[in-house]
Amino acid sequence: MATVLPRVARPPAADELTLADVDSVRLMLRGDSVIDWHRLSFADHAEVDRFLRLNEFNPESEPEMERFEDIRSDAVDYLARAFAMAIPDEVAADLPARDLFLVASSTGPHQKWACVVLKVMHIIHHINGRQALLKVSVSDEVVFREIELKVLQVVEQLRAAGAPLTEFEWSRKPRDSQITKLLAKKSTLAASIYDKLRFRLIVPQRQDIVPMLATLARQLIPFNYVVPGESVNQLVDLRQVLAAERTSSESIPTELPFNEFSGPEYRIINFVADLPLRLERLIPKAEMIGADLSHVVFVLTEFQVCDKMTAQRNESGASSHEAYKQRQHERVRMRLFRDKDDPLLPD
Questions:
Q1: Residue 194 contacts by C-beta under 8 Å, 6 or more apart in sequence?
Q2: Which DSSP category does 186 fall into?
Q3: CATH class label, 23-336
Q4: N or C: which end of the chain has fewer CB within 10 A?
């Protein structure tokens, strides 16, 4: 039974952001991991169900909720085996697994235990989805096409709802560009290429960026599958976002992450998400019966967001894509010929 995502509404205004919105946006901008979180921010079952649908679990499907319960049982068994943890019965089995999100958002006695179990469930579900994609014979062409269709559907609904979206485009990194990127990077593992599939959203004004990110987190990108350590934020002052909700007084780094091949004036918001995709979109349902496969797989996808003025500046002078490629190609030539000026060569 296919999951039906809720119809996209207009992005929230800055003063309409909920605590959950702020947490999601902060994760996108900083590239943190949900494994380090101490609390969730779900207010009711409606929010939980929306989140489950983003993760491609249909709350109205009995088989999928049974699968969700199995993941909870697997997590509890793992914690008992690996750490000899005695999870309270209420968290381990008595409450529906779906309710753990509300317990983890509460201040009750089992809040911490619910967080622990959900973190392990998150990892197990991801492993299951990764294994399922490896077991099926599906080309990147098919996988990327389905992700493109999924994202395009949400973007079209955003536009229909009057969202401030000036431009939207997507691209796949050509094979030659993948080779060049790996030759230029210190790490030459193909698995480290996160931008084989990229989506770019351009909003009219700088102040539209955070509402757009919050909408993506509500309607398309589960915050729990934003890839840690792969975010670049050169446009949004996180202090202002946090101050709006008064959620934290933590120190926010102010230095800008730097791509050595980008121009000095280049600015962007960039993050990677492992988007969930229903396996039935890739193979016939008949092939799934008895195969013991996760009904969800994951596809690494890069997102870029910026405002129109910044986008225009990024396409001129030293910040342009042509200048970027030239600097990258110069590095590759240096490495291939082992030029003495190559900073990646050992002393």
A1: 227, 230, 272, 300, 302
A2: S
A3: alpha beta
A4: C
